[in-house]
Design goal:
The chain has helices at residues 6-22, 72-87, 89-95, 101-123, and strands at residues 2-3, 29-35, 44-49, 54-60, 62-63. The protein is of the alpha+beta class.
């Protein structure tokens, strides 16, 4: 089992704050927590309370040893992905009240992957 270090958590938090500012999502109240997401087989997640404009950005505390050691860029990409989830939350929220929810969620992730491969790869620079 590999543990996520405090430094890696700080990289994630700083990157979330950067992308929130980049996309103009300044009306959201971000919070950050580290929890064990291993059972969900995920490294990061955002929990969103739409009405109060609160977003809790989660980063796992550990990950499976068979996964390669994470690098700084990985944590910045996790941050980018979760901010993109927040960017598109209105569409997902609308879809929850229709029969198109699965299609919208799938399309949302397709858009996020496009953004990761274009915007993130173009603008994310090692500091």
């Amino acid at each position: 089992m590999n543990k996520v270090s405090d430094k890696e958590f700080e990289i994630y938090k700083k990157a979330v704050e950067h992308w929130l500012s980049f996309f103009g999502l300044l009306d959201w109240c971000p919070d950050f927590q580290q929890i064990d997401l291993l059972k969900d087989d995920t490294m990061a997640r955002v929990l969103i309370t739409f009405q109060s404009r609160c977003a809790t950005f989660l980063l796992t505390t550990k990950y499976k040893t068979e996964m390669p050691k994470r690098i700084k860029r990985d944590f910045r990409r996790y941050a980018f992905h979760e901010v993109c989830e927040l960017l598109l939350i209105t569409i997902v929220t609308w879809a929850e009240h229709s029969k198109a929810e699965d299609m919208v969620v799938e399309e949302t992730h397709r858009i996020i992957r496009l953004l990761e491969n274009s915007v993130f790869n173009t603008l994310d620079r090692e500091e």
